[in-house]
Amino acid sequence: MISLQNWEEDAIEGRLDRLGLAFIEFNEFNEFCMEYGFDWGEPLLDVDNEDILDAKLNQSYKNYKLGEEDYFLGYKTMLTSEKAALRKCRKIMKKMLKKNQNKFFDLDFGPKNEQDMKGHKYSMWRDGQIPSPGYPDPKDCEWKHYHQISKQ
User: Fold this and answer.
1) What are the backbone angles phi and psi of residue 71, rounded to the nearest 5°?
2) Which residues of 61-73 are buried (b: 16+ CB within 10 A; e: fewer)?
3) Secondary structure letter of residue 77 according to DSSP
4) What is d(CA 147, CA 118) in angstroms, rounded to the nearest whole number?
5) What is the pLDDT of residues 53-99, one digit of tens each?
6) Is this structure's pTM higher than 0.70?
7) What is the CA angle 103-149-81, rounded to 5?
């Protein structure tokens, strides 16, 4: 049995989860163990997924490459991170400027018309269900384009 002081436990935890993602990659754990003389008999991998994730997190949204993992439920305009969303917005804006358009209509998000209750529900709640009493009912909400709101 290994006996550790509190600061050693904190150091181990910080090292194993330095990005705060609440998971430990085996290669990182294996590398950590080797530093302290524990050998699991598994070689270290050349590719370190945490380093790849680190590089992706430190990349500018201008150079970010959108992938399928960036799309929420497969929708091309609903994204899973701020960086992916900024990249998508930049792409949309460039396309709009090129075509001299000043309004964007999202075909993936929001109701398609006033009668589209399914579009209302799923745009507000992931599974279309009100999470608990007190949250707004989609039928009581209006969807407006920002041009309509800015004129008020």
Assistant:
1) -95, 125
2) eeebeeeeebbbe
3) T
4) 24
5) 666 677 788 888 899 989 887 888 888 888 889 999 999 999 999 99
6) no
7) 65
- Two tokens, residue 72: 């929420």
The amino acid that residue 62 corresponds to is K
Dist. CA 75–CA 126, nearest whole Å: 13
Encoded tokens for 78:
């609903």
3-class secondary structure for the chain?
CCCCCHHHHHHHHHHHCCCCCCCCCHHHHHHHHHHCCCCCCCCCCCCCHHHHHHHHHCCCCCCCCCCHHHEHHHCCCCECCHHHHHHHHHHHHHHHHHCCCCCCCCCCCCCCCCCCHHHHHHHHCCCCCCCCCCCCCHHHCCCCCHHHHHCC
| Distance of alpha carbon 3 from alpha carbon 127, whole angstroms | 47
Asked if 129 and 117 count as a contact pair (C-beta separation under 8 A), the reply is no
Which residue, among 63, 50, 61, 45, has the nearest Cα to 15 in the 3D structure? 50
Structure tokens at 61: 């949204």
